[in-house]
Amino acid sequence: MPINIPTHLPAAEKLREEKIFVMDTDRADTQDIRPLNILILNLMPEKERTELQLLRLLGNTPLQVDVTFMTMATHESKNTSKSHLDEFYVTFEEIRGRRFDGMIITGAPIEHLPFEEVNYWEELTRIMDWSDRNVTSTMTICWGAQAALYHFYGIGKQPLHEKCFGVFRHTVSDPTVKLARGFSDLFVAPHSRYTEVSADEIRNHPDLDLLSESEEAGAFIVLSKDEKRIMITGHLEYDAGTLAEEYRRDRAKGLDTAIPKHYFPQDDPENDPLNTWRSHTFLLFSNWLNYYVYQETPYVWA
Question: Where does the entry annotate site (Important for substrate specificity) (predicted)?
Answer without folding.
Answer: 192
